[in-house]
# Entry
Amino acid sequence: MSSRTIMIVYILYRAIKFMCHARLSVEDHVLLVFMKLRLGLLYEDFANRFGLELTIVSNVYRLWLPVLFKYVRALIGWPDRYSIRKHMAVCFRRKYRDFICIIDCSEI
# Structure
């Protein structure tokens, strides 16, 4: 883990430690949320893995989303329109002149 990642997790830990559900440690909160974001598993899967009710898993995730948004938002950069067009694949550039974002939804 990079020092930047460790710092982010520490900041999130300090922000959320007083709001954690009693049956789940702060570390499990972090693990659950990051696994959900990275792997996209269903709440039922997390309920089984962590031995929790479905509503608790859902509440944990919904509790963390605003906190993540608040602290991680500044780390997400968006390039200017010129840079986007410059690095866009030629086939997209010709067909979609006014687009600045292509979202990959191939997993859906």
User: Anything to note?
Assistant: The mean pLDDT is 80. The chain has six helices and no strands. Helices lie at 3-16, 26-39, 43-50, 54-72, 81-87, 90-95. The two ends are 29 Å apart (CA to CA).
